[in-house]
Automatic annotation (TrEMBL):
InterPro entries: Kinase-like_dom_sf (IPR011009), Prot_kinase_dom (IPR000719), Ser-Thr/Tyr_kinase_cat_dom (IPR001245), Ser/Thr_kinase_AS (IPR008271). The lineage of its organism: Eukaryota, Viridiplantae, Streptophyta, Embryophyta, Tracheophyta. SUPFAM superfamilies: Protein kinase-like (PK-like). Pfam families: Pkinase. This is mitogen-activated protein kinase kinase. One of its GO terms (biological process) is response to other organism. Belongs to the protein kinase superfamily. STE Ser/Thr protein kinase family. MAP kinase kinase subfamily. Its EC number is 2.7.12.2. Residues 69-323 form the Protein kinase domain. The keyword Nucleotide-binding applies. GO terms for molecular function: ATP binding; MAP kinase kinase activity; protein serine/threonine kinase activity. It comes from Platanthera zijinensis. The keyword Transferase applies. It catalyses: L-tyrosyl-[protein] + ATP = O-phospho-L-tyrosyl-[protein] + ADP + H(+); L-threonyl-[protein] + ATP = O-phospho-L-threonyl-[protein] + ADP + H(+); L-seryl-[protein] + ATP = O-phospho-L-seryl-[protein] + ADP + H(+). Keywords: ATP-binding, Kinase, Nucleotide-binding, Serine/threonine-protein kinase, Transferase.
Length: 351
């Protein structure tokens, strides 16, 4: 997909925009939090004068309006809502539109607004681009870069398990995404799982959905439908409600082990309480040494340490022998993704 849509624009003079500010603020259904406004027309950042008057509004991307998106098909059904492939009427560009109902507590809404602001300002090759978001009729819609291979969760359903050398190439990209989030944006993903790692026919692997799902999951109404999120939570978050950057490494280790073995690392249980108990009480899962290389086993063990201080950072993991022993330039993820699980939902299918 080409990246033709311009990046967020800078602030504009008040005089030119007095009327549009009035119009924007008067829209019914505007969701406000601090300097953020989200409504049917998108997300705006507002500045206030000392007297508290609205001085200017920075649009993030005026070229995208919800009404200009034609629905092509539903591509995913997440725990908080559906994901649709949509096409921009005027440019023909494809996007993924994630729609989440917002009948949740005020506090969670505020956090979501903050997370959306971070999402919109995150530009990395290893993170799914977020172009704009809208709030209308009680639903938040997020316009995302469309990843035509779907998620690792979709891919695993087709291939069952991923051979080590491809896994090494996938790990490298996910770790680069984590390094970007942890070191450049200073944010914790909090919800890394197979459905939040997306792939495309170019062999790209990108992290999606940081923050927002985790907040929704902690809202009591959605808790029961979001057990997916709990399965990948690190022990320290469950037992002490504590989490740092290194918490993402636990989730990452579980995801990679699942990709290698073809099944979730803990045995199936009945409720999310049982999952939490198993994570806190049981010894950490590991890669069986009779099925995997010693490098992969050691890599998984560097991630799946119950004490956060014993886990390796994303930066250190990037130097791990499991990754350095494979020559990435010879690993053709693009062909692997395309040949292993045809047909991908490529743009051509939808013309
Ligand atoms: P969850 O709620 O489990 O985190 P999501 O709602 O984020 O899951 O995504 C559900 C599914 O929607 C994914 O497994 C994937 O198939 C699809 N999907 C999500 N985002 C995109 C995207 N940007 N491009 C293509 N497909 C996507």
């Amino acid at each position: 997909m080409k990246r033709g849509i311009p990046k967020p624009t800078v602030q504009i003079a008040l005089s030119d925009h007095e009327q549009s500010i009035e119009k924007f603020l008067s829209k019914t259904g505007t969701f406000k939090h601090d300097d953020l406004l989200v409504n049917k027309d998108g997300l705006r950042i507002v500045s206030h004068s000392k007297q508290g008057e609205v001085q200017l509004i920075r649009p993030l991307d005026n070229n995208l309006a919800l009404d200009d998106m034609d629905m092509v098909k539903v591509v995913g059904n997440g725990s908080a809502g559906i994901v649709q492939l949509v096409r921009h009427k005027w440019t023909g560009q494809f996007f993924a539109l994630k729609v989440m109902q917002m009948n949740i507590q005020e506090n969670a809404r505020k956090q979501i607004a903050q997370e959306l602001k971070i999402n919109l300002s995150s530009h990395s090759l290893y993170v799914v681009l977020c172009y704009q978001c809208f709030y209308d009729n009680g639903a938040i819609s997020i316009v995302l870069e469309y990843m035509d291979g779907g998620s690792l969760s979709d891919f695993l359903k087709k291939v069952v398990m991923i051979p080590e050398r491809y896994l090494a190439a996938i790990c490298r990209q996910v770790l680069k995404g984590l390094i970007f989030l942890h070191h450049e944006k200073h944010i914790i993903h909090r919800d890394l799982k197979p459905s939040n790692i997306l792939i495309n026919h170019r062999g790209e692997v990108k992290i999606s959905d940081f923050g927002v799902s985790a907040i929704l999951a902690s809202s009591s109404e959605l808790r029961d439908t979001m057990t997916g999120t709990y399965k990948y939570m690190p022990p320290e978050r469950i037992s002490e409600s504590k989490h740092g950057y290194i918490s993402d490494i636990w989730s990452f280790g579980l995801v990679m082990l699942e990709c290698g073995t073809g099944k979730f690392a803990y045995p199936p249980v009945d409720s999310y309480y049982d999952i939490l108990e198993a994570v806190v009480e049981n010894p950490p899962p590991f890669a069986p040494p009779d099925q995997f290389s010693k490098e992969f086993c050691s890599f998984i063990s560097a991630c799946l340490q119950k004490k956060p201080e014993d886990r390796q950072s994303a930066q250190l993991l990037l130097q791990h022998p499991f990754l350095t022993k494979h020559d990435v330039s010879k690993i053709d993820l693009a062909s692997y993704f395309t040949n292993a699980a045809p047909p991908l939902a490529t743009f051509n299918d939808n013309k």
